Amino acid sequence: MNKKIAVLGAGSWGSALANVLFENGHQVTLWTRDEKQRDEINTEHTNKHYLPDFTFPDNIIATNQLEEALKEAEAVVFVIPTKAIRDVSRQVSSVLGHPITVIHASKGLEENSYKRISTILSEELPSEYVKGIVALSGPSHAEEVIKRDLTTITAASENEEAAILTQELFINDYFRVYTNSDITGVEIGAALKNIIALGAGVIAGLGYGDNAKAGLVTRGLAEISRLGVELGADPLTFMGLSGVGDLIVTCTSSHSRNWRAGYQLGKGKDVETVLDEMGMVVEGISTTKATHELARLNNIDMPITEAIYSVVYNQLDVKDVILNLMQREGKSE
Fold first, then answer.
1. In this structure, what CATH number is given to the domain that contains residue 100?
2. How many CB atoms lie within 10 A of CB 19?
3. Claim to verify: residue 193 and residue 171 sit in the same structural domain
């Protein structure tokens, strides 16, 4: 099965997924808005800002022309920041003229509307050309996927045929893909785990150990499940790869941008400084705001999310916020 695939977004995860697809025998075009990045990929076959130790195969072509990337593509993979999904979807809609399967590997909620990424895609892309929308998510660091470390991930869609196609496109000896019909749960787990990862980084930055980390991850999973179920997700989804699996890998590894950002916050740096030094999108920052507001609208108790929001957006002292969490009234688990 040789397919032409357009991967939109040449960050670390987009680059890694493009390489998986290429190694599986597909023709891959990688789209980036950045002309310098395009030229680097096409001439040097590197993407040093995101993956400094990785070299692309010569046959992966980068372009900054969306129409060129989409030409004859049978599947389009969105791997761009959540805040850019709607704008890029509109651009795709303006030039798309044939049916495609839409796959996204982004993780977040849209600010102000609080919508999931698949919802945004369904609103902006022409329905007559969309065969199905799939969320590709799970415990996966780009830095390990490019080294062919064993990785397991979920392809979630209400359209079973689209989920199976995505599985077939990506699955190989080191990259195992499961299908799932609960796209709501998969997307909620993918987005909200970034908030908990910020908290895990904060705890590490303050010098707390494994007890604190385990407590945060466990209670964080409870928060994610509460909101997810309220929004229509299957609670069992959060016990799977895109739930507890993604939460574990994001909260325990320095590969995670969200963990690294939280670590710096725990060390006393302000949010603006942390983001400037990261030089990459930290999805957990904007997702914290969207989730904080969404939880209040739905009257869902999410104390860890509220605590992270207080640190990031109200500039409260991290130590005081953690003390307040620990001093909350005792409850049943």
1. 3.40.50.720
2. 23
3. no
Which pTM was predicted?
Answer: 0.94
Residues 168 and 279 in one domain: no
Q: What's 275's domain CATH number?
A: 1.10.1040.10
CB 123 within 8 A of CB 93: no
Q: Is 285 helix (H, G, I), strand (E, B) or coil?
A: helix
- Helices 318-326 and 183-206: crossing angle in degrees, nearest 10, is 110
Question: What is the tens place of the pLDDT at every residue in 57-97?
Answer: 999 999 999 999 999 999 999 999 999 999 999 999 999 99
Percent of residues, the chain, with pLDDT higher than 90 = 88
Whole-angstrom Cα Rg for the chain: 19
Q: Which residues pair with 5 in a beta bridge?
A: 28, 75
- Do 203 and 154 reside in the same domain of the chain? no
* 150 and 195 belong to one structural domain: no
pLDDT of residue 329: 78
Check whether residue 227 and residue 298 sit in a common domain. Answer: yes
Q: List, in order, residues 6 or more apart from 49 with CB less than 8 Å away.
A: 37, 279
Measure CA 117 to chain center: 10
Residue 332 lies in a domain: no
Main-chain dihedrals φ then ψ at residue 231, nearest 5 degrees: -90, 5
| Residue 331 reports pLDDT greater than 90 | no
Per the listing, tokens 């895109």 go with 242
The CB-side HSE value for 283 (13 A sphere, CA atoms) comes to 23
**Residues designated as active site:** 193
Q: Is 55 helix (H, G, I), strand (E, B) or coil?
A: strand
Q: Indicate the residue among 181, 212, 234 that finishes a domain.
A: 181
Helix (H, G, I), strand (E, B) or coil at 330: coil
Residue 333 belongs to some domain of the structure:
no
Burial of 323 (0-12, 13-18, 19+ CB in 10 A): exposed
Q: What is the C-alpha separation between 62 and 6, in angstroms, rounded? A: 10
